[in-house]
Give the backbone structure.
Amino acid sequence: MSGSEEMSKALNATTPGFPDIPSTIVRATIVQASTVYNDTPKTIEKAEKFIAEAASDGAQLVVFPEAFIAGYPRGYRFGIGVGVHNEAGRDCFRRYHASAIVVPGPEVDKLAEIARKYKVYLVMGAMEKDGYTLYCTALFFSSEGRFLGKHRKVMPTSIERCIWGFGDGSTIPVYDTPLGKLGAAICWENRMPLYRTSLYGKGIELYCAPTADGSKEWQSSMMHIAIEGGCFVLSACQFCLRKDFPDHADYLFTDWYPDQHQEAIVSQGGSVIISPLGKILAGPNFESEGLITADLDLGDVARAKLYFDVVGHYSRPEIFNLTVNETPKKPVTFVSKSVKAEDDSEPQDK
C-alpha cells in the first residue's frame, strides 16, 4: 500500500463523515531502449515489441525517449565547424534526414495502429521532417488509435541548433484524456521555467519528459518539476551502447566508462517516474534496456496542490504574468485575392 493510500484510509477512519472517494489509478510504462539507427522500419518493429510487453503487464500509457524514431544523433558532428563545410557532413545529414518521418504520414499511421492494437495511450519521440528541415518532436496517440497531435521542441540545445529547426507556440499541447491531462517537454526544455509554466497553466497531470540527458543531475530536475508542477513526471531516456551506433570515424562519444569498446555505454538511461509528492515510483535505471513501470494514483495531484498550486493559489498574477503566443509562425505566407472579372456579356450602350 502506498503512503497516499494509507493517508486516505487513515483520514476516512478518523474523520467523521469523510467520504470514501475512489482514486483513479493509471499504470504507466517508460520504454528505455536504443534506436535502430538508419533503419526506421526496424525501429518501429522494436517499439511494437516493447509496447506489446508493456500492454501485457497492464500498461495504459507508454512513453518513449527523445528522438527514438530516427535516433538522437549523439556524437555526430556532421562535419560542422565555424566556416567549415564538407561533403562527408552533408552525406551524414542526408542519411539522418532519410530516417526521419513526415507527420502525419505512413509511420504515424503505423504507430496509431499499434496504439489501437494494444489499447494504450502512446507518447513517441521522433525526428520529424518538414521538407528538408528536421524537428525533434513528441507524437501523441490515443488508445483508440487516433493521432492526437505533436509537440515540436522549441529550443534545440547546443549543436542541435545546427541540424534541427525550432518549434513555435502552436505545438505546446496538453490533451485532456481519460487517463489525465497529458503533455510533454523535451530534454532541456525542462530547464525553461516559462515553458514549464505554460504546461502547468494548461493543467498538466501526466508530464512526459523524453530526453537524451542521462546524467545524475537530471534526476534533480525531474524531482523539482514533479513537486513544482504537482504532476506525475515520466522521464524517458535511451540506453545505448557504442555498438548501437553506425561506425563512423567522426563520431565523438562521451563514454560513461573509460573503456572505449563496442560494449561501452554512451547513453546510460536513467528513466524515472516521480509522483507529485516527490516520491520516486520507479527507476531510475542506469544499467540496461527495459521497461520502467509504476501505478499512478491521480489523487496525489490534489493532495500535492493542497499546499502548492503554482498557477493557482500560490501564484501572484498581479505581479507575475506569462503570455504564450500560440500563433503558428510560417516563413512564407501566400495570400491570394479573388478578383471578379468584369462581365462583358451585357450589351453596351450605343
